[in-house]
Amino acid sequence: MIDEPTPILELRHITVRYGDFTAVDDVSLALPKGVALGIVGESGAGKSTLARVAAGLIAPTAPGTGSARPGTGSGYRGMGSDRHGVGPDRDPAPRAEILLDGMPIAPIRRTRAQRRRIQMVFQNPDSSLNPSHTVRRILAEGMLLHGTLGPHPSHERVDARCRELLHMVGLGESDGLGTAVAAGFGLGPADLAPRADLDDILDRRPHAFSGGQRQRIAIARALAVEPDVLIADEPTSALDVSVQRDVLDLLATLRRTRGLTLMLITHDLGVVNEICDEVAVMRGGEIVANGPAATFFHSPLAGYSGELLDAARSVALPGGAA
Ligand SMILES: Nc1ncnc2c1ncn2[C@@H]1O[C@H](COP(=O)(O)OP(=O)(O)OP(=O)(O)O)[C@@H](O)[C@H]1O
To answer: Boundaries of each ABC transporter domain copy (predicted)?
Structure first.
């Protein structure tokens, strides 16, 4: 038997309650290294809550003993929520666990090294960008805190890394993000934007940028600490349609070129079809199906996953999965 590699991030028996309301209900999920996992589902399904637990922003609640909701099984694997199939020998209150490289980590009081490895990009970039800080400070803060440039790096070294990050997210390119993404970051010195332009960007504050540019800065901020896992929660839904594609291409490129493991929360099945290898479908706080994207998009699906896919097809999947 071939051993499965240890997932880089694993959530076990995660339940989150807000008062009496259960937003996430005993969810287990494994994220293999280098994989892009799309988490889809209707509004209020618990996607963001689960993402925040994974990112260490909120703690899971100890699982309760509430009755299981009816499952919505399909031919697709439906193993995400462990309330399905409760048996007589099953522990009635399994302990919530979060594992990084197979090692349990504290839900929110993580070590600095653990925090560095899992970064999150939010729907609204403004939530992660301090409006009174320059882009230079926004990018430098994490790398100095986490020592990614070694102890006491010079200003020149920090600035050079900040400029590199701007390139990485396509800021400073004369013709915008598309060039950098298309080139897969194989930019030679001749392709680099003039240093003065980049320094000008670094000196500015977030309000001086468009929504799409701010989201690129937020992605650069996350990358500044060289994470292994990037959790992106609806990273394009607050952006103009015209720049959504650029930001998604950027995420896909980053994943490919930097070996990032990606957890992408989205309503958009077309995006999942294009970017993700794995899909988890959430409904009512549970994962009702999960498995390879190819199966999800190309096999007949029963139950909720099928309904979701049909609904997406009816509004035309941009990724052409129909
Ligand atoms: N801080 C909170 N206090 C109380 N209820 C909350 C809180 N955060 C989320 N909820 C509720 O938990 C449920 C799940 O919310 P969550 O944001 O995780 O869903 P979602 O699938 O990400 O939805 P959307 O796609 O609309 O963002 C919703 O009913 C929401 O109203």
So the answer is: 9-309
d(CA 6, CA 314): 38
Instruction: Give me ligand 1 centre to Cα 292, in Å.
Output: 26
What is this model's ipTM? 0.97
CB-count burial class (<10 Å; 0-12, 13-18, 19+) for 214 = buried
- Locate the domains of the chain by residue range: 9-314
Ligand 1 pocket member 46 (CB < 6 A) = yes
CA distances 131 to 97, 158, 318, Å, are 35, 21, 34
Q: For 309, phi and psi rounded to 5 degrees?
A: -65, -40
Find out whether the beta carbon of 44 lies less than 6 Å from any atom of ligand 1.
Answer: yes
User: What's residue 77's pLDDT?
Assistant: 45
DSSP string for 12-30:
EEEEEEETTEEEEEEEEEE
260 within ligand 1 shell (Cβ under 6 A) = no
Task: Supply the CATH classification number for the domain 9-314.
Answer: 3.40.50.300
